[in-house]
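Re-run requested by the PI after the first attempt was lost when the workstation crashed. Everything re-entered from the original request form. Ligand of interest: flavin-adenine dinucleotide.
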Amino acid sequence: MTTNVVIIGAGQAGVTAALSLRDQGWDQEIHIIGAEGHVPYQRPPLSKGYLAGTEDISDLALCSTAALGNQQITTHFGVAVTQLHREQKVVVLDNGKRLQYRWLIIATGSEPRDLMVPGKELSGLHSVRTVEDADALRECFTNGGHTVFIGGGFLNLEVAAEAARHGSVTVLEVAPQILGRVLSRPAAEALAKHHQQLGVDIRCGTSIRAILGENNKVAAVELEDGERIAAARVVVSVGATARDELAAQAGLVTDAGIIVDEQLRTSDDSIFAIGDCAVFPSVYADSTMRVESVQNATDQARHVASVITKGSLEDYQALPWFWSIQGTQRVQIAGLALPDDDTRVVQHDEATGKLVVERLRDDRLVAVETINAPGPHMKARKTLAASVTHLASQVAS
Ligand SMILES: Cc1cc2nc3c(=O)[nH]c(=O)nc-3n(C[C@H](O)[C@H](O)[C@H](O)COP(=O)(O)OP(=O)(O)OC[C@H]3O[C@@H](n4cnc5c(N)ncnc54)[C@H](O)[C@@H]3O)c2cc1C
C-alpha cells in the first residue's frame, strides 16, 4: 500500500499542512494539488495592502514552488481534483493524472456566497477572493465614481475604506448594525464612526430588491423601498460557503462544510478536512462550527500533520483569534463570542481609538475584542487559552 499524503487545495491550510508534515518528520511522499495557477498566496492582503498597492504579488506568497521542491513536496498547480474514489484511495486530477494516497487532507477552502437578487449576472459586480478579483477592483477604483457595497462585514468594510480613497462609497447592510454577528455593539459602533470619518456612507437595515443595469453593466442598486442608488460598480460580500462538493460526491458526511471529529478526521478514517471547508466540534462554541481565518487554517493544518506523523493526539482545541484592518484601525478578537453574550467595555480612549471589550457568558470570559490595543489582545489570548485547558481537564476528570 502507498504511504503518500495527498493534499487537495494549496491555500493557507494545504501549504501549512505540507510544510508541517516535513517539519514533524514525515519522510514519505507528499503531493499538493492547487486549482489556482499561482504560487500559493495569502488572502488577507487582497483586501488590505495588495488592494491599496502597498504590497505586490511577491509579498503575498505563502512559500515558493522551489521551497516546496526543496522539501521534496510534489506540486500540481493550476490543476483541480475532479474525483475522489475512496475504495481505491485515489484522487483524479483534471489533467487525467491519478494519485494514490494513504492519507488524504482536504483543504479546499470556501467561496463567496451568491447574492440571490435579479441583476447578479451584470458586469461591474465584484467580490474579493482571488488575486484576479483584487486586480480587477484595483483597476476600476482608479476610475473613481460611486461604489456600492452590499454587506457590512469585515471584508467588505476593509475594501470600502480603500474605495473611499478614490471616490464616493455607500455600504448597505441588512442588519441593524454593521459587524453585528462578529462584534459587540461598542466595537461595531466605534468602527462605524471611523468609516464615516473616512467618507463611507453606511446604511443599516437596508434590503436590496435588485441590481439594475444598462448595456449589461451595473448602473444602480434598487432598495426594497424603491430607492435607487447609482453605482459605477457593486462589491458583494454576504458571507462564504464551504467548498465541500468533492467530499459530498465521494459520500463523506457534509452539512454546510465537511464534518470532522475532534481529531479533524472526516467520516472516512483516512481523510482529514481542515481550514475554511471543515466543520469541527469546538469547546469554545459548545457545538460544531466552521471558521474562516488564518489562525484556524494554520492551527488545524499543524494538528493534522501531528496526527499523521505521531498517531492519535489530544483533541484540536486551539483558541480562535482573528484580526482585521479597518481603515487605520487594527481590530483583533481573541476567543469566540456569541451575539447574546454580555459586553463589558474595560478601556476606551476616543483620541487614539483604543478600545478593549470583554465578552462574558454566565460571568465567564469567552472573548476579548480590541481596537488598536495589541498588548491586551495578546494577554487575552493567553488567559483564554489557559482557562479552556482548565475547563477541558475538568470535563475529562
Ligand atoms: C479578501 C480576504 C481577506 C481576508 N482577511 C483575513 C484577515 O484579515 N484575517 C484572517 O484571519 N483571515 C482573513 N481571511 C480569511 C483567510 O484568508 C482564510 O480563512 C484562509 O485563507 C483559509 O485557508 P484555506 O486553505 O482553508 O482556504 P483557501 O485559502 O481558500 O485555499 C483553498 C484552495 O483550494 C483550492 N481548491 C479548491 N477546490 C479544489 C480542487 N477540487 N482541486 C484543487 N484545488 C482546489 C482553491 O482554489 C484554493 O486555492 C480573508 C479572506 C479573504 C478572501
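Saved to the shared folder this time. Residues 345 and 357 are 4 Å apart (CA to CA).
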